[in-house]
Design goal:
Order of helices and strands: EEEHEHEE
Number of helices: 2
CATH topology: 60s Ribosomal Protein L30, Chain: A
CATH superfamily: RutC-like
Strand content: 25-35%
Radius of gyration: 14 Å
Helix content: 10-25%
Largest sheet: 6 strands, mixed
Strand order of the largest sheet: 1-2-3-6-4-5
CATH architecture: 2-Layer Sandwich
Shape: globular
């Protein structure tokens, strides 16, 4: 196995548990789930699901850049939503951060997320 490299940036929230923002192995980057935390305050952003989704994708973009890539390198995205009624709004925001061809994606409804937030997104990048 290739050596694991820890990816970290202050432009994205620090981990709130025993995990890394991302791990790079070879040319593959595994970005941990991002929730709508402001990296400066470590507090959840105020606002509706659109504001929260922007924060999540901004956090994810910062990690991708720290790993030497962009969100255009995403090959797989997983979205978790406690309220699947927010699915369409998250799709609209996602289109502002990802270009065609879009990555493969799954979106699942979940009972709850860390800090009782409304959205979590993780991704795999191929650099």
């Amino acid at each position: 196995m290739s050596k694991k490299e820890v990816i970290h940036t202050d432009q994205s929230p620090a981990a709130i548990g025993p995990y890394s923002q991302a791990i790079k192995v070879g040319s593959t980057v595994y970005i941990s789930g991002q929730i709508p935390l402001d990296p400066n305050t470590m507090e959840l952003v105020e606002g509706d699901i659109t504001a929260q989704a922007h924060r999540v994708f901004q956090n994810m973009r910062a990690v991708a850049v720290a790993a030497g890539g962009t969100l255009d390198n995403a090959v797989k995205v997983n979205i978790s939503l406690p309220d699947l009624g927010n699915f369409a709004a998250v799709n609209e925001v996602m289109k502002e951060y990802f270009n065609k061809p879009y990555p493969a994606r799954a979106c699942v409804g979940v009972a709850a997320l860390p800090k009782d937030c409304d959205l979590e997104v993780e991704a795999i990048l191929a650099l």
